[in-house]
Amino acid sequence: MPYVGLGVYKAMEGQEVENAVKAALKHGYRSIDTAQFYANERGVGKALKESGVPREEVFITTKVWNDSQGYDSTLRAFEASREKLGLDYIDLYLIHWPITGKYKDTWRALEHLYREKKVRAIGVSNFQIYHLEEVMEDCEVKPMVNQIELHPKLTQRELLTFCQKHDIQVEAWSPLMRGKFFDHPTLIALSKKYNKTVAQIILRWDIQQKIVTIPKSVNEARIKENANIFDFELTEQEITDIAKMNENLRLGPNPDDF
Ligand code: NDP
After folding, report:
1. Ligand 1: which residue has its CA nearest to atom 19?
2. What is the dihedral of CA 93, 95, 97, 100, to 10 degrees?
3. What is the C-alpha separation between 87 and 110, in angstroms, rounded?
4. What residue ranges line ligand 1, CB within 6 angstroms?
5. Is position 200 within any domain?
6. Is 191 contained in some domain?
7. Ligand 1 closest atom vs CA 173
8. How far is the CA of 34 from the centre of ligand 1 (A)?
9. pLDDT tens-digit readout, 97-127
10. Total domain count for the chain?
11. Looking at residue 38, which CATH number applies to its domain?
12. Stated pTM of the model
């Protein structure tokens, strides 16, 4: 999967999400992260079709929402997402949140979809180590991806190490901390040193740690900016310095509460 993708949470269905996806594809993105919950899958699919970029060049992720979890309802939710996106197959299908008492049945549905080749890869989102262990204890197909909140204020070292050990690709959501903390001195200093924006410094920090990143923007200039991170390299020390910003600070919900 590509290391950089466009996130479309809160990009409005219709013109807004369509323009964002088209801009991203124009500026070289080949990965889009949507979800049943975002209610913009139709716009994502429409923009992809109209962009003229061949389907097989693009990596499309969507997710099953909490109230659709369970075996049969997940299969129905998948079919609805696939229909809205207008695609024959999805590249990556994720369980959006670990709903207690449900996520193991949901996982069995994802395994079924994978075996049927309706989805090229299956994974989870917002899973803690204990959730992953529970799924892996008797699964047939192991989760391939864990999409989690991860940024300089929430570095997730323990979970990251666990995922790397088990060959589960970590993907960072809210990588830009939703634009907060851009004034941190460490980030400002690196921004000046490399003549890159703070957003570019953070996204570069992700990919150098082999973390897939999916910044959201609906603004063409920022969409372009966020993908322009392949012409400089942070030092090991700088990667460590950014990680020192960690405060285990969550901007979104805590997966332990689901
Ligand atoms: P991000 O950290 O990506 O921040 C997005 C915000 O930053 C927007 O307000 C955007 O505004 C702004 N922004 C984008 N680029 C720049 C830039 N270069 N400079 C300054 N500001 C910028 O937050 P998200 O929460 O949206 O996370 C990204 C994606 O992760 C989501 O879109 C979604 O796909 C996924 N996600 C997954 C979750 C899960 O539970 N699995 C939960 C939350 C998100 P503007 O649009 O105006 O540019």
Report:
1. 199
2. 180
3. 17
4. 7-9, 33, 96, 125-126, 147, 173-179, 197, 199, 214-219, 222, 225-226, 252
5. no
6. no
7. 30
8. 12
9. 999 999 999 999 999 999 999 999 999 999 9
10. 1
11. 3.20.20.100
12. 0.98
